[in-house]
Structure formats: structure tokens, C-alpha cells
Amino acid sequence: MPPSRRDFLKTLGMGLTTGSSAIACSFCGKRTAERHPPNIVLIFIDDMGYADLGCFGAKGYETPRIDRLAAEGIRLTDFYVSQAVCGASRASLLTGCYAERVGYQGAPGPASKIGLNLGEETIADLLKKRGYATAIFGKWHLGCVPEFYPTRQGFDEYLGLLYSNDMWPYGYDGTPVAEGRKAAYPPLSLIRNEEPIAEIKTLEDQSTLTERYTREALRFIDENKDRPFFLYLPHSMVHTPIAASPEFRGRSGHSPYADVVMELDASTGRIMDRLERHGLDGNTVVIFTSDNGPWLNFGDSAGSAGPLREGKGTMFEGGPRVPCVIRWPGRIPAGRVTSEIATTMDLLPTIVAWAGAPLPALPIDGLDIRPLLQGRTETGPRDNFFYYYEHELRAVRKGRWKLIFPHKSRSYVGAEPGRGGLPGPYATVETGLELYDLVADVGETRDVAAEHPDIVAELQELAERARDELGDRLTGRKGKGEREPGRVSTRFPADITHAAVGAAVSLSGPPSPSYPGDGPATLTDGKRGTFDFHDGRWLGFEGEDFGAVIDLGREVSVSSVVCGFLQNQGSWIFLPTEVRVSLSRDGTAFREAGRIGRKPVPDPAAAYVPEEIRFAASPVRFVKVSAKNVGTCPSWHAGSGGRCWIFIDEIVVE
Ligand SMILES: [Ca+2]
Ligand SMILES: [Ca+2]
What we know:
By secondary structure, this protein is of the alpha+beta class. It is built from twelve helices and 27 strands. 18% of the residues lie in helices and 25% in strands. Strand 7 and strand 8 form a beta hairpin. The two termini are 50 Å apart. One calcium ion binds next to loops. One calcium ion binds next to strand 27.
């Protein structure tokens, strides 16, 4: 008998757990299901480096309140986020899954039409089932259209920014930008629940964010002191543009960056004091960590990864390895330090087990690390970690060994960093197949692959199993455990029946290799695309005209042809300037049935436009459609001179 999927994944060490086993587990011990389950406070800093806290070796300034958390709890030295980028990292934190599993990548901007799938269960969803009050104060970054807001993903209340604080129509110095990508950004709104309440448009406004979030957190604790609560505090700082409130400017005597970190430290202290005032600190789990490593090209406005290689946007250790401390007096022994591998994905199963709440119904990757944290064992349940970035499996770690696969990466080495809040350029680095011993060489400086062919082979085997489950763009693999992100649907039904469904299509030229859909058949499969042009339901043509002939297989009486086109000018996708339909009975002699022409005009809204051509009904077998590309982006467009795209999803023949 073949092993079950669960057994199989267990041998992978991928920690796949399912709802049914979870329920059995969370009620098996009395210790985990007391009358009043613990409150959870999860403080998540944006872009804080591995060495930015005193207890992780920060130099030149102090973080006494966070250091005290470490002294009274546990410090994790080998703690990872799933990816060194804001959005994907947060998807993993809240779902307990690799970003590949939940299909959520990168750091989507204001025009993005995807979000964390509403079918995923977040920590907030799960704790609500156990009667927790839930709140998020800070940066969301898991979908910026209302259907994906935090209030739709288990949070009772929200105050914060929907995405990064630099996704605003201003430069890093706070002055308006006239051209480029940011010029098209909408105002950066502070959202309360589902309504914008203020606009963040100056560095002075940025400097209010830490204080605003902290005040909300204190109020939330006050209001919910008599019931279990989950407080998720994903600060916008220390992501640039950094800004400390007036009270903290110059406080560190070191740098504006250190001032901002000290304000975050003081914020953490105020939360601890408030818990203590209400007598709650003994029954509250406080977790402090970061979403990814430092953004090093900002120089003196970035943090430090200390001894680790590189930073944010890379999967060398400085990218995904982040500082982490967890405090729960009486349960987690004070002053503990562990170098076992653990990840933000492990927080979900650990927290819900402490709370006596169920695990998600869908498979996850996180592992319950309660025994490790509580000192019942020195060995954690996780001995491996898969370093994915934007769906590329760039490296794998098992125990002390990290095998890096050949890939191109952002690098900060050899590029002059910016100063005074402004970014410097990135460099790039290309790796080979490289093996590092992270215990002897945490900085990944000496490739020892040639000395350990057996370990290389073992890690390659492990990686192969990850690719099977989660896919890998570097080797062109689709994983069988991959799920879809949430997508904004158009107002048209996703499925449609018409006379050309299943008909053969020949294209006059191939689509871009980046957007091939399912080949030419994409145009007659009876499926429409969503606003996400990455959804595999579109054919994309870069700078080229579109042309296709559909063979209906036999003569059919036809009176209209409707072609579905996408407009998303922010992504250089324009409607065609002309659409023309011709008909034929024999595939040789075509007669024109109609044409539509339009001029490109600025329109920031994403739109699904069915271009319809109607004509007198007549029997035809072949339908020819051509569409003219705008060509190069018009002078009024941010990409002026660049090549325009056409995206088409279906040719509806009736
Ligand atoms: Ca970040
Ligand atoms: Ca289609």
C-alpha cells in the first residue's frame, strides 16, 4: 500500500498537519485548555534586521524593554520568515503555510487585484472560534481591495495601512514625485476597519504611525481585559521612509534609525506595562519578531543583519533570518536561548494549541513548537527549512547545512548604499550549487560542496520533495499542494458556454512566454480571466498585434463575436486600438464582419472590456480575429516609450 499523503509529508519534515489531527491534539492535554486561554500579543516589525536589538547584538543604542522580554522568555537564534519580502512573509505568518502553498507572493502594490484567499484560515479566524477578541493595528499587505481587508480575515477591528508606507506618491524624502511608478500611486490612506480616515502625505505624518498603533493597542487591551484577546501589531516602521515621533528624535544619540527602533522598544514597554497593570502579563504570550531582514541599500536608514550575509529581498541568511523573542512567564522558562530551526509558520499551530483552538481545515506547513519553547525538549520538531523566494526554491537547510541552488539574486555587495533616507542601487549576484555549514560559517563565506558530496545529494533529495509539493520556478515545477490566491473577479461570469468552446485555434504569432495561458486553446475553453493577469487564464502579447483563426469544425449560424480584453495601464496593459472580425466558410475566402476602433486614453482603473462585433446571422466555419496593439506606451504614461501589452482571455462566438 502506498504511504498516505500525511505520512509522506511527515517524512519530508514539512510538518503537514490537518484539521482533524489538530482537534485531537489541542484537547489532549489539560494544560493547554484551561478556563481562560492565554492572550496573544504578536508584535511584527517591518524590515528589522537580525542584529537590531540589544539582545541580538545591536551596537550604539539600547532596546531595554525588548531585551527584558528575552531575559524573561526565550530567544530564538535560528528563526526564519518564509520569504524576505513583506507580503509573502505576512501570508505565511497568518496562515502557517509557505507562501507557495497559499499562492501569495511578493509585496503587491496599490493596484494589485489579488489578496490572501478568503478560504484560508488565519490565526485570527481560528482564535475567534475560541471566543477571542481580535485586532490588527499596523500594516496588512494581504490585499488592498475591501473584499480582502483584515476585517474579512478574522479581525474584529483594524487601524493601519493596507501596504508598505513607501507606496505613496512621494519620494523617500517626502516630496511629491512627478513621474515613474510612484506618480500613479493613490494617496496613502490610514484605514479604520474599512474606511479611510486620514492621509499619510508627509514625513511628519509617517512619524505619527508608531504612536497611533500603540495607542490603539493600549485601548484594545483595556477594552478586552476580561476576555481572551489576540493583538496583532505589525508596525509600519522600520520600513523606509523611517520617522520617529518628535519625542524620540535624537533619543538614541546614534542615528534616526536607532531613534525609530527605540520608539518601537518603548512602545513594546508600554504594552507590557499595560498588561501588568491589568494583571494580565502572566497569562499573555508576547511574541516579538520581524517580517524580513534589513533593506541595506538605504545605508544609515537601514538596520543590520550583523554577521549574516546580505538582507531583505535575498534568501541568504540576512534576508529571512530575523530576531525573535517569546515570553510567557511560568510556561516558557526565563532566559532560555535556542538555536533550533523555527519559523513564523510554526506560530499558528503553536498559538492555536495554547488557545485550545482548532487548526485550519486545509493542510499547513507549520509545526507545533510548544515543547521546544516550554523547555520540555531541547530539540525542535523542525530540522529543515525551504528558502523560497517568489516561487523559486533558492536553497534548503537541514540541520547545520544549507544548500544553495544556482540562481540570480539581488545583492548589496559592491553597491554604494544611500544616505539620509535615500536608497542606493542594488547589485546582483549569481550563485552556483553551493553548500554552507551555518554553524561554523553563519556568514555563508566558504562553499564546502566539494568536500561533502553526500550531504549535497541528501539536500538535493530533500529539495526535490519540496518541489513536488510546493513547486519551483527555477526548475519549472508545479507543486501538487499549491493553492490559489484570492482574486478579484470581473462582473462577468467566470464560465461561459458558446459556439466556439473546444474549437481549434491557430495564432498568427505566439504569446509572450511569460503569459502563455494553456496555449491557444485558452481562447476557446469557456473560461474568462480575472483581474489577476497572472491567473493562467490570459494570453499576453508584448508590443505585438494579436491574430487568431478559430475553426468551429463545421458550419454554424453565427451573429456575434465578443473578445475579452484586459486593461491595466499600471502594468502597461492597454486595450487594442482596433479589433477586426472576418468570417469564412472554407478557411480561404474571408469577408470582414465588422471592426471597432478606439484611441488609448489615460484610465487608472483595471477594466475587463468585452469588445463585441455583431452582424447578420450567417453560416460560417472559420472566424478570424485581429487586434492592434497600441505599440509603445503613450507620452502621458509612466512607461512612455516602453512596449504595451495586449491581454485576451476568450473569444465568445454566438
Ligand atoms: Ca518588510
Ligand atoms: Ca478562456
